[in-house]
Design a protein that fits this description.
The protein has one domain: D-Maltodextrin-Binding Protein, domain 2 (3-Layer(aba) Sandwich), CATH 3.40.190. It is about 50% helix and about 0% strand. It has eleven helices and no strands.
Length: about 180
Amino acid sequence: MTFEYVLKQNGLDTKNDLVLDDSIKFDLMAGAFAGGTADYVTLFEPTASMTEEQGKGYIVASVGEAAGEIPYTAYFAKKSYIESNPEIIQGITNAIYKGEVWVKEHTAREIAEVIQDFFPDSDLDMLEKSIQSYKDIDAWNDTPVLKEEAFDRLQTVMQEAGELTEKAPYNIIVNNKFAEEAIQ
């Protein structure tokens, strides 16, 4: 959806100017692209860098950078759960913020060394390169606060993709209380 949004923001009509195939399972996209099914593909790191290193394609742009801040990962809980378990919600939020601060304060190499076990198919240098590319575009947030502008952009992306018919009101469904407490 974000790729489609970026294409539209750059003047392309995704219905008439190109063939956009979203039928391929996410974890099979790199292989399908390498097999010749398309001219372009969207991939996360380290898959994008691995595809380039294998000579199967080139990284030409960052969809994330072109789209602007979009809350890609978010955590949800029922209002009743939040009200009954504020210490758990605060603990999780504090941990997320601690991770965000740690990522900002450490080098791509240091981060790669810590997460390497989660990427058994990637060597340390590849992970470092991948992480640095995310650092270069400032892909990671500084705080767990969900900004209204970013939330609105996410909903616009979803609406343009036909996945959302009506935008939800930010001030009703977003609760930044725990995020704001974490950064104090």
